[in-house]
Each structure stands twice: as C-alpha cells, then as structure tokens.
Amino acid sequence: MAQKNVVVVGAGVAGLTTALLLSRKPGYNIVVAAKHMPGDYDIEYASPWAGANYMPVSIRGTDAAEWDRATWGPLEDLAQNHPDAGVHFQECEIYSRSKDLGTATATWFAELLSPNPWFKDVVPNFRVLPRKALPPGVDSGTVFTSVCINTAIYLPWLVSQCLKNGVIFKRAVFKHISHAASQGVHPSKKVDLVINCTGLMACKLGGVEDKSVVPARGQIVVVRNDAGKMIDISGTDDGEDEAGYMMTRAAGGGTILGGCYQKGNWDSQVDPNLAVRIMKRAVELNPALTGGKGIEHLDIVRHGVGLRPVREGGTRIEKEKIDGTWVVHNYGAGGAGYQSSYGCAEAAVKLVEEALQPRPRL
C-alpha cells in the first residue's frame, strides 16, 4: 500500500494522541502542525492548564461515555508501567450536597455524582462513602481509584513517543483548514488527509468556523501543599459557575486547586477575588492541605487560567471533504480532553482509515 501523507493540525492532547495512535499503524507519513506546542502557555492552548484527571461526567449510553471507557485502559497502563509519562494513581472522592441539585455544576456532574455511575465497573475500588467519612455539609459521596496527569510531563512525553515513530513537528498558523494541505507543511508535496484538532480555535478557523464551540473559562491555583487525594464537590455557595476540586499531579507537579466553569468568558487574566474563594473552599473541603490552618499557609506556585473548548452537542468526530481534501475532525471535548483522549483518537483514526482505504475494484 502506498504511503499516505497526513497533517494533524493542533498539538494539544487531542492532536498528539491522534497522531500517536495513527503513527503506530503502517503506511502513514505524519506531520503535526500547530501554532502552540507543549512548553507554551497561551490562553488559546487549553491542554497545559488542565488538572488533569479521569473523572467521567459523560452520560451513560452516549458516544462520550464510550470514549471515556476506552481511555481508562491506556491511562491505567501508563500509571502502572510508564513512570516517565507523568501519570499516577490517586484516590478520588466525589462529594454531593443535596442543596446543589439543579444547579449548573450539579447538572454537569450528574453522572459523576450518581451512586451508581456507568464507570463504577471501569475504575478500580469504586464504593459509596459511609456517612461518617463525609465532610460537614456533604450529604453523600463515592470514592474510586483514578489517575492524575502532570501535563508538563505528559504532553512532551506524547511528543517523544510520536518522534520515535517518525512523526514530524512544525510550527504553523493556518487561516483556513485547507491550507494545511496546500502550504507546503508536509515534506511530500501531496497531502492525502488533514486531521483537525484545533480545540477552541475551531470556532474561528476558516472552513470550519464551528460557532457551537465556546470557551468555558477555568481558573486554578497551583500549590506545593499535598492534598493527599483528589476531591470534587457538586457545587459551591459562591455562585453557579464556580466549582470546588483539587488533585495532586504526579512527579512533583504540585496540587491543583479549582475552580470555575464560566461559559462564554474569554478573559485570560487571573481574577484575584476568585483565587481567594478557590483557596478558601479548598482548605474547608480538605483541612489536611494546611494542617487545619487558613489559606495563608498555602504555598502558592502560580495562578492559571485556561479555556476549555466546549462544543454544544459534544466532541465532534466526523469526516468531510473540504476543498477536495479529506478532513477528519476531533475537537470540542471541553473539560474531558484527557479522560476521553484515547477513545476520541481511536474513533478519529478509524475515520482516517475509512477515508483513505483503497476502493475495491468492480
């Protein structure tokens, strides 16, 4: 079979995972072309800012749930067998307050908050927390073994695995998705297929301009204090678009305290008042962070803001011809970019193979 030339646009977790899985198959010459690469910190580039973890909010029976399900195995394997990837196991406690029922956060987390979620048979050690183990104000809770990902290690690790398989990386900015096939990015003159993993920028990229993609602003505080466990709660008393969660990243990556889910908000600057609320909520939720003391005993590394690429209707994984070239889309995972990454990439690779398979002779 003749080699097929493919350009992946975007080097976030979606683009890198898709490039990696495709590079494991014979017959593809792959270039990853992107404005932002691992090591960059930019408001357009969501992946470095993520927590990141495996905490499914996808609804039972949906494609999204299947993509999440398919991603647990690879992440578990990385945590067990590949310490250089920056992924480790961590106990995850999910707290539910009945007063949050019907709020934006509780609705978003509905499956996660369920005492009987679809993923209880996927993740290890799932169980309902006894009442005496719950913090004040929490009505119910579950616990399971999850993973937390140090994005500063994991994204470069994905690049390194792609490089081992011959993938080429290039900086490039495209005004139109078809330019990835025509602007000489690929060393071969002919590009057979483009994979669109442009995340939030899919709303502005010519040929795509998907207006159903909007930012959901997240703000975090990274601290040196060890949380000891991952925690997520159904809501806060500080407003519907604020959330309470924490996780300690692998390999010295610090503890992430969050957060918020502000849809339609493009603001890249840290809100200092929100930062204080995030820290107060975290210390109340998990007093072990500061040994029972106040937020002045948090050892702050930095503050961060990221924009989750949320698509109304969920992640887009589809193929279409644009200006005569096949394009496979894989974007719009919102806050589920890491925990659905392998499932989404597998689905995208399947579409690549469908688009490029030789047609049988009649």
TrEMBL record:
Gene3D superfamilies: D-Amino Acid Oxidase, subunit A, domain 2, NAD(P)-binding Rossmann-like Domain. Pfam families: DAO. Coiled coil: none annotated. It is an enzyme of class 1 (oxidoreductase). GO terms for biological process: D-amino acid catabolic process. PROSITE patterns: DAO. D-dopa binds at Y245, G335. It is found in: Peroxisome matrix. FAD binds at T198. Keywords: FAD, Flavoprotein, Oxidoreductase, Peroxisome. Residues 6-350 form the FAD dependent oxidoreductase domain. Its EC number is 1.4.3.3. It catalyses: a D-alpha-amino acid + O2 + H2O = a 2-oxocarboxylate + H2O2 + NH4(+). Its cofactor is FAD. Its main location: other. One of its GO terms (cellular component) is peroxisomal matrix. Belongs to the DAMOX/DASOX family. This is D-amino-acid oxidase. It comes from Knufia peltigerae. The lineage of its organism: Eukaryota, Fungi, Dikarya, Ascomycota, Pezizomycotina. The gene is DAO1_1.
